Q: What sequence folds into this?
């Protein structure tokens, strides 16, 4: 499904773009009349300094200009731009800036939903969709940490073994349904996208978290302390 | 003459002992609890009884703090399911207990590739919990000075802390030199050019840019002093602050976006002899930065 078709399906009340390109943004009207700020990456865009500033700027514009308007973060990115110049400028800081702008939106009472629409890789994913208060996906969604060849080299997991893991393990699989099982997304949207969006806008927040992490964090919060 | 205790090569436990008031540290989920990674066994890898991160509470110059210290010696400090959750639990505890602040001793390659998607979710959890503390105004200070540096998703975490302290030996970035070289070729970044690596990612450059608020000598006492000072200062995250940051980051990109070497950035920023920066001591560089007209780049 193309982005245009998905947006049309999500927003039966219409979608008005105001930015297009690697970073795009617009306003969609959901089935129940709610106006939603849509923003994100398109077509596997790399997120570098310029893209990060555009994304952060869009979030700030919503916080300033549209109280209570929900945001829908559209995720379709190959990850952070890998370049010397970007690192010299401090790309980690630019991605952190997006993250802080999203935190401001949360604090201001905006719902922040995420939608994994394509590849969702590493830093580009971490600083956007993974910080949604609730993250969903389209069937085309694909979580990614690193290229398998590079991952095999760095981890020294033999490529054949890594490929088996990619087929069978929710930890390594690019399949969005397995990522959902792990706790990465709340659910995969299919069929009535407009209806799923409206449900999500009123559902309680449910950010990405594994069952293991929920339990370990609880223990750190609640258990006493060992002074050895 | 007082002995210097190097932060750079110390273990996470040694750093905690060196930073906090003697005898004040108390650990959550210590190694005896054996809360280990449920995922590494499937790869035939050994686990660590603390999964490579120590979390607990203590006092810094008498003030109550919560502290997390990543152990670079275990999988490069990379963040897995349990490791990340320990930090999240600590940050959530800070939300309730409202300590003077939270110290994050960051030494990490980022997402633990051996746990892939679970590692990604783990780092996101740390970001989310950290940002909640920022919004609540609870001070968070990152201390970066270890052998492995602070990269990947943990580089984003560092950028979300209220303040960052680095030594010259520390490194901070998003994609490290090896990652860039492997993906984009040696001309894009020669990871074996140590001088370039430290010019690009080292504490001096980060301090010059303003991404590290303090540059300290590689010494527990210096890190402690900087941390105590920063924990006592208010840290605001609001619209005005983010708009100002947005303008500053836009200007940084405009001014230095075509620079291929930090030497060019430093020269453009008004540093008189940029080639001397790597050999300056901390005091000289700090004085120089304070003296730059118009403030930091």
A:
């Amino acid at each position: 499904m193309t982005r245009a078709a998905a947006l049309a399906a999500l927003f039966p009340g219409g979608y008005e773009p105001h930015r297009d390109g690697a970073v795009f943004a617009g306003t969609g009207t959901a089935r129940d009349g709610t106006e939603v700020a849509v923003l994100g990456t398109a077509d596997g865009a790399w997120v570098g300094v310029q893209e990060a500033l555009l994304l952060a700027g869009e979030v700030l514009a919503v916080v300033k200009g549209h109280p209570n308007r929900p945001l829908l973060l559209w995720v379709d990115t190959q990850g952070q731009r890998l370049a010397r110049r970007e690192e010299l400028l401090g790309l980690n800081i630019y991605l952190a800036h997006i993250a802080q702008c999203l935190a401001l939106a949360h604090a201001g009472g905006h719902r922040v939903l995420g939608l994994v629409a394509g590849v969702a890789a590493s830093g580009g994913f971490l600083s956007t969709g993974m910080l949604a208060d609730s993250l969903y996906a389209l069937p085309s969604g694909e979580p990614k940490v690193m290229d398998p060849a590079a991952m095999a080299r760095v981890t020294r997991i033999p490529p054949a073994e890594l490929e088996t893991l990619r087929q069978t393990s929710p930890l390594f699989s690019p399949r969005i349904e397995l990522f959902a099982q792990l706790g990465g997304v709340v659910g995969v949207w299919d069929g009535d996208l407009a209806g799923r969006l409206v449900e999500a806008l009123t559902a309680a927040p449910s950010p990405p978290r594994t069952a293991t992490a929920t339990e370990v964090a609880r223990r750190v919060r609640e258990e006493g302390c060992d002074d050895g | 003459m007082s002995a210097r205790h190097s932060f750079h090569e110390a273990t996470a436990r040694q750093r905690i002992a060196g930073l906090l008031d003697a005898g004040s540290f108390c650990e959550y989920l210590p190694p005896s609890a054996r809360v280990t990674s449920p995922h590494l066994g499937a790869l035939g890898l050994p686990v660590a009884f603390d999964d490579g991160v120590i979390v607990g509470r203590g006092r810094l110059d008498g003030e109550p703090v919560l502290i997390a210290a990543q152990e670079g010696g275990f999988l490069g400090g990379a963040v897995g399911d349990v490791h990340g959750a320990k930090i999240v639990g600590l940050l959530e505890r800070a939300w309730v207990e409202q300590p003077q602040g939270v110290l994050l001793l960051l030494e990490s390659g980022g997402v633990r590739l051996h746990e892939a998607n679970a590692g990604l979710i783990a780092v996101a959890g740390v970001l989310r919990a950290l940002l909640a503390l920022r919004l609540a105004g609870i001070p968070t200070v990152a201390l970066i000075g270890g052998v492995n540096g602070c990269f990947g998703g943990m580089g984003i975490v560092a950028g979300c802390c209220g303040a960052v302290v680095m030594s010259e030996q520390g490194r901070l970035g998003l994609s490290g030199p090896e990652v860039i070289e492997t993906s984009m070729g040696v001309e894009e970044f020669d990871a074996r050019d140590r001088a370039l690596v430290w010019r690009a990612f080292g504490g001096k450059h980060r301090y010059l840019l303003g991404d590290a608020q303090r540059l300290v000598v590689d010494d527990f006492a210096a890190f402690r002093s900087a941390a105590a000072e920063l924990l006592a200062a208010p840290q605001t995250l609001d619209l005005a602050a983010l708009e100002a940051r947005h303008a500053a980051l836009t200007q940084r990109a405009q001014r230095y976006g075509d620079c291929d070497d930090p030497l060019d950035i430093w020269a453009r920023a008004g540093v008189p002899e940029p080639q001397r920066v790597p050999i300056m001591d901390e005091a000289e560089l700090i004085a120089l930065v304070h003296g730059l007209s118009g403030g930091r780049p």
Summary: Chain B has a mean pLDDT of 96. The CA atoms of residues 139 and 231 of chain B lie 6 Å apart.
